[in-house]
């Protein structure tokens, strides 16, 4: 499998996460969303609850008795109590070669307007590819996601 890096310049983390999670769920995979900042993860959780009723994304934030049942679990941890087969990294959360090799999908979302986030994504790309993992770089063109590079 390949780590898929999504360079966010037109879409928000929330919108991109929703799209990737919906595709993962439709493939039959549970999703783990990993971040580094608990407050940002809570805001992401709230935004997902405010989505359209016909596009409801079933999810929860880690720490409840129902973590194992969550189709999409938002957390700071690498633990996957929900049996996730897809991992989404936000806010520079670490992605390991083991994750890339053991998951159906691994997504790294980074804000193209944030120089530190872009630098962190480059460091992750280099670390993963040097460890022998495949990686893909995705960017938006005219509202569509297009793969621009692969290693």
The CATH fourth-level homologous superfamily: DNA polymerase III subunit chi
> What is the N-to-C succession of helices and strands?
EHEHEEEHEHEE
Number of helices: 4
The major β-sheet equals:
8 strands, mixed
CATH C-level label: Alpha Beta
**Sheet with most strands: strand arrangement:** 3-4-2-5-6-1-7-8
Could you give the distance between the termini? 12 Å
Q: What are the low-pLDDT stretches, counting only 5+ consecutive residues below 50?
A: none
Strand content: 25-35%
**What is the fold-level CATH name, i.e. the topology?**
Rossmann fold
What's the total number of strands?
8
Could you say how many structural domains there are in total?
1
What is the CA-based Rg, rounded? Answer: 14 Å
* Portion of residues within helices: 25-40%
User: Structural class, please?
Assistant: alpha/beta
Mean of all residue-level pLDDT scores = 94
What characteristic shape results from the CA principal axes? globular
CATH architecture: 3-Layer(aba) Sandwich
Task: Walk me through this protein's architecture.
It is a single chain. The protein has 151 residues and is an alpha/beta fold. It has one domain (2-150): Rossmann fold, CATH 3.40.50.10110. It is built from four helices and eight strands. It has helices at 13-26, 38-49, 97-102, 115-130, and strands spanning 2-8, 31-34, 60-61, 72-75, 86-89, 105-111, 134-141, 144-150. An eight-stranded mixed β-sheet has the order 3-4-2-5-6-1-7-8, sandwiched between helices. A hairpin with a 2-residue loop joins strand 7 (134-141) and strand 8. The radius of gyration is 14 Å and the shape is globular.
């Amino acid at each position: 499998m390949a780590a898929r890096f999504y360079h966010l310049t037109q879409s928000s983390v929330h919108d991109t996460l929703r799209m990737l999670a919906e595709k993962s769920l439709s493939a039959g995979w549970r999703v783990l969303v990993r971040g580094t900042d608990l407050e940002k993860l809570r805001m992401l959780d709230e935004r997902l609850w405010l989505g359209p009723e016909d596009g409801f994304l079933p999810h929860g934030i880690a720490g409840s008795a129902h973590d194992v049942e969550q189709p999409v679990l938002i957390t700071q941890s690498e633990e996957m109590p929900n049996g996730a087969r897809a991992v989404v990294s936000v806010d520079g959360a670490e992605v390991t070669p083991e994750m890339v090799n053991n998951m159906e999908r691994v997504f790294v979302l980074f804000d193209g307007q944030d120089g530190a986030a872009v630098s962190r994504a480059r460091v992750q790309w280099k670390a993963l590819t040097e460890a022998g993992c495949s990686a893909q770089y995705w960017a938006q063109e005219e509202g569509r996601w297009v793969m621009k590079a692969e290693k």
